[in-house]
Write a structure and sequence with these properties.
The structure is a single chain. Helix content is about 80%, strand content about 0%. The two termini are about 35 Å apart. It is built from 9 helices and no strands. The longest helix has about 45 residues. It is flat and about 65 Å long. Its main location: membrane. Forms a complex with TatA. Keywords: Cell membrane, Membrane, Protein transport, Translocation, Transmembrane, Transmembrane helix, Transport.
């Protein structure tokens, strides 16, 4: 019987992975089609003045094109992957647990999109302006390679986007009992220090930029504490805990 269960679970995992892979291939094809338009749009809507994208090898343009297509596919595959994980563990959940965990998927995706938008439209331009000022200070001639431009962009955007997942992570840990509102309140001052350090690592070393990144992170933490407190009270008042 145990062997049959293993075979059933492996077959189920294989089916879920095939669905995710098929969706990734479809979205990758879409990404290959729309990547030139995305890149041209980014070039025509400069965040900070006119920055020329130079290539220093024959493969630079191709690599950026492929990276853009891959990121488009990855972005729209993550929700499908999360749903397939939820669908795989769904038989082991109660109806109440399944109903309460399903909203994590769209909320997580929405927070990621918000984080990408905030970091691209707010944080990244601040860092570019700071770097340009520093280059002008030392009298450097500005010649930016497209490969380094996008590498720098990804290094700024994605850590910030992942940081925006904090409310979902805190909510999930509260849901499974690893965090309580009391623990969150006790660790608030340490969390502030940690978020300030993260903000200083992401943002340029000037006060305005630092506050522009750190304050949203602290607000996210406070929102996480509020939502976790609400969920904790709901769990305590539920019939299962009475």
């Amino acid at each position: 019987m145990e062997q049959e269960d293993w075979i059933f679970h492996l077959t189920e995992v294989r089916k879920r992975l095939l669905i995710v892979f098929a969706w990734f291939v479809v979205t990758l094809s879409v990404g290959l089609y729309v990547s030139p338009r995305i890149l041209r749009y980014m070039k025509s809507q400069p965040l900070v003045g006119e920055i020329n994208w130079n290539v220093f090898s024959f493969t630079d343009g191709l690599m950026i094109y492929m990276k853009c297509a891959f990121l488009v596919a990855l972005l729209f595959t993550v929700p499908v992957l999360l749903y397939q994980v939820w669908a795989f563990v769904r038989p082991g959940l109660t109806d109440a647990e399944a109903k309460s965990t399903l909203p994590y998927i769209p909320v997580s995706f929405a927070l990621f999109i918000i984080g990408v938008s905030f970091s691209y439209w707010v944080v990244f331009p601040m860092m570019i302006r700071f770097m340009i000022r520093m280059n002008h200070t030392v009298g450097a001639v500005e010649t930016y390679g497209i490969d380094r431009y996008f590498s720098f962009l990804f290094e700024v955007v994605f850590p910030m986007a992942i940081a925006f997942e904090l409310p979902v992570v805190v909510l999930f840990l509260t849901r499974i009992g690893l965090l309580t509102p009391q623990r969150l309140k006790m660790t608030r001052k340490y969390a502030y220090v940690g978020l300030a350090i993260i903000g200083s690592c992401i943002s340029p070393p000037d006060m305005i930029s630092h506050l522009s990144v750190t304050v949203p992170l602290i607000l996210l933490f406070e929102i996480s504490v509020m939502v976790a407190g609400w969920q904790w009270r709901t769990m305590q008042e539920s019939p299962a805990n009475s």
